[in-house]
Amino acid sequence: MSLKRDIQTGIIHAVETVRQTNPMAGSVTNSVTINFVANAQLAVGGSAAMVYLPDEAQFLAQAGGAAYINVGTLTPVYEKTLPGMAEILHNTGKPWVLDPVAIGIGDLRTRLLQTFKPYKPAIIRGNASEIIALAGLWGLAGGTKTSNVRGVDSQDSVSAAKVAAVALAGWTGGAVAVSGKQDLITDGSVIAVSHGGSHFMEKITGSGCSLGGVMAVYATAASGFIAALTGTAVYNLAGCRAAEKADGPASFQVHFLDELYKAKPREIADNPFDIEEI
Ligand SMILES: Nc1ncnc2c1ncn2[C@@H]1O[C@H](COP(=O)(O)OP(=O)(O)OP(=O)(O)O)[C@@H](O)[C@H]1O
Ligand SMILES: Cc1ncsc1CCO
Ligand SMILES: [Mg+2]
Protein backbone atom coordinates (compact mmCIF):
# COMPACT_ATOMS: atom_id res chain seq x y z
CA MET A 1 0.00 0.00 0.00
CA SER A 2 1.17 3.52 -0.71
CA LEU A 3 1.98 5.90 2.12
CA LYS A 4 -1.00 8.04 1.14
CA ARG A 5 -3.36 5.05 1.39
CA ASP A 6 -1.91 4.09 4.77
CA ILE A 7 -2.52 7.62 6.00
CA GLN A 8 -6.11 7.56 4.71
CA THR A 9 -6.72 4.24 6.45
CA GLY A 10 -5.38 5.81 9.65
CA ILE A 11 -7.73 8.78 9.26
CA ILE A 12 -10.78 6.53 8.82
CA HIS A 13 -9.78 4.49 11.86
CA ALA A 14 -9.36 7.61 14.00
CA VAL A 15 -12.75 9.05 12.96
CA GLU A 16 -14.60 5.77 13.51
CA THR A 17 -12.91 5.01 16.84
CA VAL A 18 -13.76 8.43 18.22
CA ARG A 19 -17.40 8.13 17.15
CA GLN A 20 -17.64 4.66 18.71
CA THR A 21 -15.83 5.36 21.99
CA ASN A 22 -16.70 9.01 22.84
CA PRO A 23 -13.24 9.67 24.34
CA MET A 24 -12.61 12.50 26.78
CA ALA A 25 -9.93 15.09 26.10
CA GLY A 26 -9.90 17.69 28.87
CA SER A 27 -8.86 21.28 28.23
CA VAL A 28 -7.39 24.32 29.83
CA THR A 29 -8.13 26.87 27.15
CA ASN A 30 -8.88 30.54 26.63
CA SER A 31 -12.06 32.23 27.77
CA VAL A 32 -12.77 33.73 24.33
CA THR A 33 -13.49 30.48 22.51
CA ILE A 34 -13.96 27.89 25.24
CA ASN A 35 -17.57 27.13 24.27
CA PHE A 36 -16.71 26.67 20.60
CA VAL A 37 -13.85 24.31 21.50
CA ALA A 38 -16.20 22.12 23.56
CA ASN A 39 -18.91 22.13 20.88
CA ALA A 40 -16.45 21.13 18.14
CA GLN A 41 -15.09 18.30 20.30
CA LEU A 42 -18.64 17.05 20.85
CA ALA A 43 -19.56 17.39 17.16
CA VAL A 44 -16.77 15.01 16.08
CA GLY A 45 -17.80 12.47 18.72
CA GLY A 46 -15.56 13.32 21.66
CA SER A 47 -16.32 14.37 25.20
CA ALA A 48 -15.24 17.78 26.55
CA ALA A 49 -14.31 19.09 30.01
CA MET A 50 -12.85 22.52 30.71
CA VAL A 51 -11.12 23.52 33.95
CA TYR A 52 -8.90 26.25 35.40
CA LEU A 53 -7.65 25.04 38.80
CA PRO A 54 -4.44 23.05 39.39
CA ASP A 55 -5.95 19.98 41.08
CA GLU A 56 -8.76 19.78 38.51
CA ALA A 57 -6.32 20.00 35.60
CA GLN A 58 -4.26 17.21 37.17
CA PHE A 59 -7.42 15.16 37.52
CA LEU A 60 -8.31 15.64 33.85
CA ALA A 61 -4.76 14.82 32.74
CA GLN A 62 -5.11 11.47 34.50
CA ALA A 63 -8.76 10.78 33.59
CA GLY A 64 -8.70 11.67 29.89
CA GLY A 65 -7.25 9.88 26.90
CA ALA A 66 -5.50 13.11 25.85
CA ALA A 67 -5.59 16.81 26.75
CA TYR A 68 -5.51 20.28 25.26
CA ILE A 69 -3.58 23.28 26.57
CA ASN A 70 -4.17 26.69 25.01
CA VAL A 71 -2.53 29.77 26.55
CA GLY A 72 -4.80 32.35 24.87
CA THR A 73 -6.05 34.21 27.94
CA LEU A 74 -3.87 33.66 31.00
CA THR A 75 -4.68 34.42 34.61
CA PRO A 76 -2.25 34.08 37.57
CA VAL A 77 -3.63 30.64 38.53
CA TYR A 78 -2.27 29.18 35.29
CA GLU A 79 1.24 29.54 36.66
CA LYS A 80 0.31 26.67 39.00
CA THR A 81 -2.15 24.86 36.74
CA LEU A 82 -0.26 24.40 33.49
CA PRO A 83 3.25 23.13 34.36
CA GLY A 84 1.83 20.46 36.70
CA MET A 85 -0.70 19.34 34.11
CA ALA A 86 1.91 19.13 31.34
CA GLU A 87 4.27 17.21 33.62
CA ILE A 88 1.62 14.59 34.43
CA LEU A 89 0.70 14.23 30.76
CA HIS A 90 4.33 13.70 29.86
CA ASN A 91 5.09 11.32 32.73
CA THR A 92 2.03 9.18 32.01
CA GLY A 93 2.66 9.11 28.27
CA LYS A 94 -0.65 10.84 27.48
CA PRO A 95 -0.79 12.72 24.20
CA TRP A 96 -1.43 16.41 24.59
CA VAL A 97 -1.89 19.31 22.22
CA LEU A 98 -0.24 22.69 22.76
CA ASP A 99 -1.62 25.85 21.14
CA PRO A 100 0.89 28.67 21.81
CA VAL A 101 -1.64 31.43 21.11
CA ALA A 102 -0.21 34.95 21.00
CA ILE A 103 3.28 33.80 21.99
CA GLY A 104 5.44 36.84 22.65
CA ILE A 105 2.89 38.81 24.67
CA GLY A 106 3.75 39.13 28.36
CA ASP A 107 6.15 37.44 30.79
CA LEU A 108 3.87 34.68 32.09
CA ARG A 109 3.05 33.42 28.59
CA THR A 110 6.74 33.32 27.69
CA ARG A 111 7.68 31.55 30.91
CA LEU A 112 4.92 28.96 30.60
CA LEU A 113 5.71 28.19 26.96
CA GLN A 114 9.38 27.77 27.89
CA THR A 115 8.39 25.40 30.73
CA PHE A 116 6.56 23.11 28.28
CA LYS A 117 9.68 22.27 26.24
CA PRO A 118 10.69 19.09 28.14
CA TYR A 119 7.08 17.87 28.33
CA LYS A 120 6.99 17.24 24.58
CA PRO A 121 3.42 17.68 23.32
CA ALA A 122 2.23 15.04 20.84
CA ILE A 123 0.87 17.88 18.71
CA ILE A 124 1.85 21.54 18.54
CA ARG A 125 -0.83 23.49 16.69
CA GLY A 126 -0.68 27.11 15.75
CA ASN A 127 -0.72 29.61 12.97
CA ALA A 128 2.52 30.25 11.08
CA SER A 129 3.72 33.18 13.22
CA GLU A 130 3.14 31.22 16.44
CA ILE A 131 5.03 28.16 15.17
CA ILE A 132 8.01 30.29 14.08
CA ALA A 133 8.05 32.08 17.44
CA LEU A 134 7.82 28.83 19.45
CA ALA A 135 10.78 27.37 17.54
CA GLY A 136 12.63 30.60 18.35
CA LEU A 137 11.76 30.42 22.05
CA TRP A 138 12.87 26.80 22.21
CA GLY A 139 16.13 27.56 20.35
CA LEU A 140 15.29 25.39 17.33
CA ALA A 141 15.91 25.79 13.59
CA GLY A 142 13.57 28.02 11.60
CA GLY A 143 12.56 30.04 14.63
CA THR A 144 13.06 33.70 15.33
CA LYS A 145 12.78 35.37 18.71
CA THR A 146 11.18 38.39 17.12
CA SER A 147 8.69 36.75 14.79
CA ASN A 148 5.82 38.75 13.35
CA VAL A 149 3.51 37.90 16.23
CA ARG A 150 1.19 40.87 16.73
CA GLY A 151 -1.61 39.21 18.66
CA VAL A 152 -3.54 36.07 17.87
CA ASP A 153 -3.58 36.41 14.05
CA SER A 154 -0.80 35.16 11.77
CA GLN A 155 1.45 37.61 9.94
CA ASP A 156 3.43 34.88 8.14
CA SER A 157 2.61 32.41 5.37
CA VAL A 158 2.27 28.72 6.21
CA SER A 159 5.24 27.81 3.98
CA ALA A 160 7.46 30.28 5.91
CA ALA A 161 6.94 28.09 9.00
CA LYS A 162 8.02 24.82 7.35
CA VAL A 163 11.57 24.66 8.78
CA ALA A 164 10.33 25.62 12.25
CA ALA A 165 7.57 22.99 12.11
CA VAL A 166 10.01 20.23 11.12
CA ALA A 167 12.44 21.28 13.86
CA LEU A 168 9.72 21.33 16.54
CA ALA A 169 8.51 17.88 15.48
CA GLY A 170 12.12 16.65 15.59
CA TRP A 171 12.37 17.85 19.18
CA THR A 172 9.07 16.46 20.46
CA GLY A 173 8.95 13.27 18.38
CA GLY A 174 5.30 14.21 17.73
CA ALA A 175 3.55 16.28 15.10
CA VAL A 176 3.27 19.96 14.31
CA ALA A 177 0.30 21.50 12.50
CA VAL A 178 0.54 24.96 10.95
CA SER A 179 -2.86 26.37 10.02
CA GLY A 180 -3.76 28.92 7.38
CA LYS A 181 -5.24 29.01 3.89
CA GLN A 182 -3.51 25.67 3.35
CA ASP A 183 -2.43 23.64 6.37
CA LEU A 184 0.94 21.98 6.86
CA ILE A 185 1.24 18.95 9.13
CA THR A 186 4.54 17.20 9.80
CA ASP A 187 6.01 14.53 12.05
CA GLY A 188 9.52 15.55 11.06
CA SER A 189 9.85 12.96 8.30
CA VAL A 190 6.64 13.43 6.26
CA ILE A 191 4.99 16.73 5.38
CA ALA A 192 1.30 16.76 4.49
CA VAL A 193 -0.40 19.81 3.01
CA SER A 194 -4.18 19.76 3.46
CA HIS A 195 -6.52 21.82 1.28
CA GLY A 196 -10.01 23.25 1.69
CA GLY A 197 -11.62 25.38 4.35
CA SER A 198 -13.04 28.84 3.84
CA HIS A 199 -12.09 32.50 4.22
CA PHE A 200 -14.92 32.64 6.78
CA MET A 201 -12.67 30.67 9.14
CA GLU A 202 -10.61 33.84 9.56
CA LYS A 203 -13.80 35.80 10.32
CA ILE A 204 -14.83 33.79 13.35
CA THR A 205 -12.67 33.50 16.45
CA GLY A 206 -11.63 30.07 17.59
CA SER A 207 -11.40 28.06 14.39
CA GLY A 208 -7.79 27.36 15.34
CA CYS A 209 -8.47 26.86 19.05
CA SER A 210 -11.31 24.43 18.37
CA LEU A 211 -9.15 22.62 15.81
CA GLY A 212 -6.60 22.05 18.59
CA GLY A 213 -9.30 20.63 20.84
CA VAL A 214 -10.51 18.34 18.06
CA MET A 215 -6.94 17.17 17.41
CA ALA A 216 -6.72 16.22 21.10
CA VAL A 217 -9.88 14.13 20.71
CA TYR A 218 -8.36 12.29 17.73
CA ALA A 219 -5.05 11.89 19.58
CA THR A 220 -6.86 9.51 21.96
CA ALA A 221 -7.18 7.12 18.99
CA ALA A 222 -4.21 7.78 16.68
CA SER A 223 -0.61 9.01 16.45
CA GLY A 224 -0.01 12.74 16.71
CA PHE A 225 0.51 12.98 12.95
CA ILE A 226 -2.69 11.12 12.03
CA ALA A 227 -4.68 12.95 14.71
CA ALA A 228 -3.46 16.35 13.48
CA LEU A 229 -4.15 15.48 9.85
CA THR A 230 -7.58 14.03 10.65
CA GLY A 231 -8.59 17.17 12.55
CA THR A 232 -7.30 19.38 9.76
CA ALA A 233 -9.04 17.33 7.06
CA VAL A 234 -12.43 17.41 8.77
CA TYR A 235 -12.02 21.17 9.32
CA ASN A 236 -11.17 21.78 5.69
CA LEU A 237 -14.08 19.64 4.49
CA ALA A 238 -16.62 21.08 6.92
CA GLY A 239 -15.40 24.61 6.30
CA CYS A 240 -15.82 24.23 2.56
CA ARG A 241 -19.33 22.77 2.92
CA ALA A 242 -20.44 25.33 5.50
CA ALA A 243 -19.29 28.23 3.30
CA GLU A 244 -21.66 27.08 0.53
CA LYS A 245 -24.60 27.54 2.91
CA ALA A 246 -23.49 30.61 4.89
CA ASP A 247 -24.54 34.24 4.46
CA GLY A 248 -21.79 35.54 6.73
CA PRO A 249 -19.60 34.56 9.70
CA ALA A 250 -22.40 33.86 12.18
CA SER A 251 -24.35 31.47 9.97
CA PHE A 252 -21.03 29.98 8.85
CA GLN A 253 -20.23 28.98 12.44
CA VAL A 254 -23.61 27.29 12.84
CA HIS A 255 -23.31 25.37 9.55
CA PHE A 256 -19.71 24.52 10.35
CA LEU A 257 -20.64 22.62 13.52
CA ASP A 258 -23.34 20.76 11.59
CA GLU A 259 -20.86 19.78 8.87
CA LEU A 260 -18.29 18.61 11.45
CA TYR A 261 -20.99 16.38 12.86
CA LYS A 262 -22.16 15.07 9.46
CA ALA A 263 -18.81 14.40 7.72
CA LYS A 264 -18.33 10.71 6.94
CA PRO A 265 -15.04 8.89 7.65
CA ARG A 266 -14.35 8.16 3.96
CA GLU A 267 -15.12 11.76 2.96
CA ILE A 268 -12.71 13.06 5.61
CA ALA A 269 -9.96 10.73 4.38
CA ASP A 270 -10.63 11.80 0.78
CA ASN A 271 -10.36 15.52 1.51
CA PRO A 272 -7.44 16.61 -0.72
CA PHE A 273 -3.92 16.53 0.70
CA ASP A 274 -0.40 16.23 -0.76
CA ILE A 275 2.47 14.43 0.91
CA GLU A 276 6.21 14.90 0.72
CA GLU A 277 8.79 12.66 2.38
CA ILE A 278 11.73 14.64 3.78
N1 LIG B 1 -8.11 31.75 4.27
C1 LIG B 1 -8.45 30.51 4.63
N2 LIG B 1 -8.97 29.66 3.72
C2 LIG B 1 -9.32 28.41 4.07
N3 LIG B 1 -9.19 27.92 5.32
C3 LIG B 1 -8.68 28.70 6.27
C4 LIG B 1 -8.27 30.04 5.98
N4 LIG B 1 -7.77 30.58 7.12
C5 LIG B 1 -7.86 29.65 8.07
N5 LIG B 1 -8.41 28.51 7.58
C6 LIG B 1 -8.69 27.28 8.33
O1 LIG B 1 -9.11 27.65 9.64
C7 LIG B 1 -8.66 26.75 10.63
C8 LIG B 1 -7.93 27.53 11.73
O2 LIG B 1 -6.79 28.12 11.20
P1 LIG B 1 -6.29 29.59 11.59
O3 LIG B 1 -4.94 29.76 10.96
O4 LIG B 1 -7.33 30.60 11.30
O5 LIG B 1 -6.10 29.40 13.14
P2 LIG B 1 -5.82 30.48 14.24
O6 LIG B 1 -5.29 31.74 13.63
O7 LIG B 1 -5.01 29.85 15.31
O8 LIG B 1 -7.32 30.74 14.78
P3 LIG B 1 -7.85 31.24 16.22
O9 LIG B 1 -6.64 31.72 16.97
O10 LIG B 1 -8.84 32.32 15.91
O11 LIG B 1 -8.48 30.09 16.89
C9 LIG B 1 -7.81 25.72 9.88
O12 LIG B 1 -8.60 24.59 9.65
C10 LIG B 1 -7.47 26.41 8.55
O13 LIG B 1 -7.36 25.50 7.50
C1 LIG C 1 -9.11 36.57 20.20
C2 LIG C 1 -8.36 35.87 21.24
N1 LIG C 1 -7.65 36.57 22.18
C3 LIG C 1 -7.03 35.78 23.06
S1 LIG C 1 -7.28 34.13 22.77
C4 LIG C 1 -8.27 34.46 21.43
C5 LIG C 1 -8.91 33.40 20.63
C6 LIG C 1 -8.28 33.17 19.32
O1 LIG C 1 -6.99 32.77 19.37
MG1 LIG D 1 -4.89 30.67 17.22
Descriptive notes:
- This protein has 11 helices and 9 strands.
- It has helices at 3-21, 34-43, 54-63, 78-91, 107-115, 128-137, 162-172, 207-219, 224-245, 249-262, 265-270, and strands at residues 24-28, 47-50, 66-70, 96-99, 123-127, 175-179, 183-186, 190-194, 273-277.
- It has one domain (3-272): UDP-N-acetylmuramoyl-L-alanine:D-glutamate ligase (3-Layer(aba) Sandwich).
- α5 links the parallel β4 (96-99) and β5 (123-127).
- By secondary structure, the chain is of the alpha/beta class.
- The mean pLDDT is 96.
- Bound molecules: adenosine-5'-triphosphate, 2-(4-methyl-thiazol-5-yl)-ethanol and magnesium ion (MG).
- Adenosine-5'-triphosphate (ATP) binds at residues 101, 127, 152-154, 179-181, 183, 197-199, 201-202, 205-209, 211, 232, 235-236, 239.
In short:
By secondary structure, this protein is α/β, with parallel strands linked by helices. It has a single domain, classed as Ribokinase (UDP-N-acetylmuramoyl-L-alanine:D-glutamate ligase, 3-Layer(aba) Sandwich).
